[in-house]
Amino acid sequence: MRAVPLEVLRPLFDDERVTEVLVNGPGAVWVERDGVLQLTDVLVDRASLERLIERVLGPVGRRVDHASPCVDARLPDGSRVNIVVPPIAVDGPCVCIRRFRSGFTDLASLARPAEVQLLTWAVRSRANILVVGAAGAGKTTLLNALASAIGPAERVVTIEDAAELALAAAHVVRLEARPANSEGLGAVTVRDLVRNALRMRPDRIVVGEIRGPEVVEMVHAMETGHDGSFSTCHANNPTDAMRRIETMLLAAEATLPIEAVRRHLAACIDLIVHVERSAAGHREIREIAEVQPLAPGAPEVSLRTLVARGVPQSTPRRGPRSSDTAPFTWVVA
Hints:
By secondary structure, this protein is α/β, with parallel strands linked by helices.
């Protein structure tokens, strides 16, 4: 039986349908079960909650207090934990545990036939892919599934703020960012790790999430021979995702003209996959869009829908980045 940070939570961890455990201060615990939030009959008091936080943070050398009221950590089984304490958390300490799923996810279990065909070809042809969607939509799960199409001889370096990826690839190096210690020293950022990964002879680089200045190194990697790289971004749709990435690049490299930023993005990102979660908790791919070459004087990078809710809309115009892969043609209805 897996180790849990507090015995009272054991029944929740033993339920394989539970994907997140949410403690909103003393009282009843919430869970996400089968994609739907549910209130449980599990109760925790203030003392138990503080003991839980101690047991989570102690082994990993992290701390949380009034001066640093927010912290991320990882349980021994890989589950991700976010903790917020007063005065930021008004009603008492809050603990959010996103459970780590062992084993590999098959792409066919997440996508419809047309989506599986297109995405499998895209990975094998070394397309650069950005997965976008809201929090909890299934972006990380889809990244894990995409990796099943990576060749066995390819070296993949993954970079995350908090390690969650478990890629179904033979040769994987996992890197995780590190916050500063109590003296404000020793921080290793995602941007630092992306820069370092370029010296590690990667065939592909996978960044768990782009959210800041690391986008500069990621775009640089995609443009300098590290084709077939993946990442995720929080966005409502593919168009919003491109605008967000554009804004991040401009914020990180203020001297770059907007036209140059758009040329870089249009050249390095091939596909954007939009995933969403329905009100019933079902996660699915809503759209797969292809990034188009930047037209002279265009106000922004344009996109072209290839698949919408599992129905093919058009054929990719971009050719494969790998010389070993033939151009794409639809073979599903």
